[in-house]
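Changelog-adjacent note: as of this version, every example in the card shows the full chain rather than a window. The one below runs 151 residues end to end.
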Amino acid sequence: MSGTPDPRAYPDRPILAVSAAIIRDGRVLVARRARGPAYNIWTLPGGVVEAGETLVEALVREVLEETQIAVEPVALAGHREVVVRDAAGRAERHFVIMCFASRWISGEPVLNEELAEARWLRPAELAQLKTTEGLAPIVAAAFEQIEDTGR
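Full-length structure tokens:
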């Protein structure tokens, strides 16, 4: 482990991130985290927005980096805010995650070092997994957004 401090620990403001509820043939792609934060938890692929990037650009880039899957972001499906406090009550981590309904375009999951496993699941199957808080409602909203666009 490197002696370099984690630049995302104890931020002076929330960190903006994106995630993708990737819909394909009535299923959504979920991935199990291989390291912290949220180690061993099932979640949606995504990551931090870089300066100068739009939310959509960040989403497309992060999904491709994490999974090698190309996606078409359709609409915002919701957001989540993650605040982790240390024993003294200080915000050790603070992320605002914009979650997008996205269509699968091409590729099969080829995971990077951040993800341990990926599965295409029907929304009802999420209840069997330990997921990030609020995942099921985001996935449900994503399916509604995809259906509303009619493609």
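Structural remarks: Residues 30 and 44 are 5 Å apart (CA to CA).
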